[in-house]
Amino acid sequence: MTxxxxxxxxxxxxxxxxxxxxxFRAAGATVELVGLFASDDIDPGLDLxxxxxxxxxxxxxxxxxxxxxxxxxxxxxxxxxxERDQQVRGSGRRAHVLVALDxxxxxxVWKLAQVxxxxxxxxxxxxxxxxxxxxxxxxxxxxxxxxxxxxPSPAVAARTTKQAAKRxxxxxxxxxxxxxxxRTALGAKSWRGVVVAPKVPDRxxxxxxxxxxxxxxxxxxxxxxxxxxxDAARHTADRVLRADLLAEAARADLARGHxxxxxxxxxxxxxxxxxxxxxxxxDAKGAAASLSSALTLAFPRAVHFDSLxxxxxxxxxxxxxxxxxxxxxxxxxxxxxxxxxxxGRPTGRPAGRPAGRPLRLLVTTYSNANFLQPIRxxxxxxxxxxxxxxxxxxxxxxxxxxxxxQRMMEYALGGQPALGDQAEEALxxxxxxxxxxxxxxxxxxxxxxxxxxxxxxRIVVRLHSxxxxxxxxxxxxxxxxxxxxxxxxxxxxxxxxxxxxLREPGAPALHVIANAMDLERFxxxxxxxxxxxxxxxxxxxxxxxxxxxxxxxxxxxRAHDERYSLVVIGDGLDRKAxxxxxxxxxxxxxxxxxxxPTGAVRLLGxxxxxxxxxxxxxxxxxxxxxxxxxxxxxxxxxxxxxxxxRDWPFFxxxxxxxxxxxxxxxxxxxxxxxxxxxxxxxATEENWRxxxxxxxxxxxxxWDWSVISAQFDQLLxxx
Length: 719
Prior knowledge:
The strands form three sheets. The chain has a six-stranded parallel sheet with strand order 7-6-8-9-10-11, sandwiched between helices. The chain contains 35 helices and 17 strands. It is globular and about 80 Å long. By secondary structure, it is an alpha/beta fold. It has four domains: 2-144, Rossmann fold (3-Layer(aba) Sandwich), CATH 3.40.50; 172-314; 359-517, Rossmann fold (3-Layer(aba) Sandwich), CATH 3.40.50.2000; 520-703, Glycogen Phosphorylase B (Rossmann fold), CATH 3.40.50.2000.
C-alpha cells in the first residue's frame, strides 16, 4: 500500500482536504497530515493515518523556540518546526509520496526528499494522485527501487649547491622553448620534473614554469600547461609569486574549457592572503590589485554563466567564506556613510521638495536599457514626475570612471583620491537635480553612483540575475542605497545569502517586483489547431538556456508523434564567450545536425516582431538552468501557448524557485515530465485551448504592466 505524507504550511481547507483524502483512499493510499495548524482545526472524522500539529509541537518545546520560529519566513518556519520533530522525520522516511499542499511547504518536502530519495516529492494534490497511480500500476518497479549513488610529478634530482641549481634551471629554460619537445610524453614529464627541482630560486622557478607552460600549450598539452604552473606554485615560498602562479594556472585551466574548482579556490585564497598583507602595510594599490585578481577568479564567466551548475548558487556562504574572512575585503565593503539620509519615499509632498514641483526621477544604466522602456514611457507622461534618462556608457566623462573596477576597489581601501574627486564632480549635477535615482542593473552604474555621497537624493537599484553571479554587488556601497529591487524572490534569497550585510541594520529596503512587460500585445489569434504541435524556445544565446534539454523533450515527443517540432527564436550561442561555451555549442550543433534536416527543429533567428512569431507557437518552453524571471516564457503564455517550465536547477528545492514563482502545474523536473505535460494537454485541440486560455489569463492578471506598474508607483511615488 502507498503511504502519502501531506505537508501544510497553512491550515488546509476542510472541504478540499476531505475531497482529496477520498481520492487518495480510492487509489489505495493511506494518508498522514503534518503542518502549521491546530489539531482542533482538522475534522476528526477524516480517518487520517497520522496527524501532527507543528504549531503545537513548537509550543511544547518552549516559549523561546516558539518565538524564534515565529520570526522566520513561511517556508523556513515549516522546516524549523519539522526539522527536530522525530515523528515528522520518521514519517518522511517511511512515506512513498511527499506532498506540499502550499508554497510554504515546498522547502520542507524538498528537505525530506533528500533523506528519502525513493519517495515521489510533489507540489499539489493532482501530481500526488498521479504519483500514487503510477506506483499502483508499476508495483514491481517501485518494490525493487533503491535509494542509491594531481598527478605527482617525478622527482628530478638536482645538485645541492645553489649555483648548480641555477645552471640546471637555465639549461632547462632554453630547451623548454621548443613545443616539439613538449609534444612527447617523455619530454613533458621530464620538464615538469625540472620545474620542481629543489633549491631553484623562486623567481627563476616562476620564469621557468611560465616558459614550460607556454611551450606545453603550443605543443597541444594544455592540461600539462596548467599542471606545471600549479606545481611551481606549490614549490614557491614567495607569497606574491605563488599567488600569481596559481592565478595563471587557474586561468589557463578555464581557457581550455575546464574548471578545477580546488585549484581556482586555492588561487583566490592566495590572492586574498596577499591582499591582506598589502592592506596591513597601507598599500591600497597593491591590495586592490590582489582583490581584483581574487574576485575575477571567483566570478569567471565560464563557471557561472557558461556552465550548467554554479558553486555560488549551490552554497553562497561557503563559496564566499574566504572573502568574508579577508581584512582587505572587509575594508573594501565596509559602510561608506552619507552626510544625511535620503528625503524618503514620497508621501504627499516629500521633505526637500518644493510644493507644486513634480518628483525629479533620474533613470540610469550602463549600456543595457532593455527593461526600461515601459518605465520611462509611464513616467514621461505622469503629471507628478519629471524624468531624465542617462546611459553612462554614452557619457564621455562617466564611462571611463564606471569601467575602472580596480580603481574603485583602491578608492574604497583609502587610495585613488583623484577618482573620488572626479566622480563627485561628474555625478553631483545629476544628484543635485534628482530626488530619486533609479539605477537599472547592479553593475558599473550602481558601483559608480555609490562611490560618492548622494546626500538627500534617494538611490534605488534594481538587480536582475546576471549581476548576482558577478563581483559588482560587492563593489556597491550598500549603505548609500535606499531600496534594492529584485525581479524574483529566488534572486533576492541568493543575493542576501551572498551579501549578509543586507540582513543588518542600515541595509537597503528589499523589494521584489516583476519586470515591466506589455503582455496584451502578445494576444493574437494562433495560426490554427496544428500550431499546438510547435514547441517554442525564445532566446538561446547563453548556455544557461540549456537548449539541449529542450531537444531531449523534443525527442520524447517525436517518439510519440512526429508532428511535434521545436521552433527556436533568437540568436545562437556566442562561441566567443569562453571555451566552456564553445564546448557546449559543439555538442548542441551535433544534436542539431541530426534533427534539423528532418524538420524537427526550425531556427528562426532574431526577430523584431516576437508577437507575430508567437502566433506559430503552441507550447512555450523554459529549459533554463537559471532565470531571473524569464520574460520570454511569460510572453509566450500570454500569447496562448502552453507554458512548460523546467524547475531551474540553480534554485530547485530552495525556499523560492520556479515552483513558487509559477503555478504548480506549469513546472516539471525532467524532460519526461515535460513531454508528458505537453502530450496530455495537446492531445486534442479542446484540451490545448482550455489549458492555454487559463495560462494566458494568469499571465495577464499577474504580470502585465497594467498590474505591475502600480508596484512601481508605490516604490517610486508612494502612490
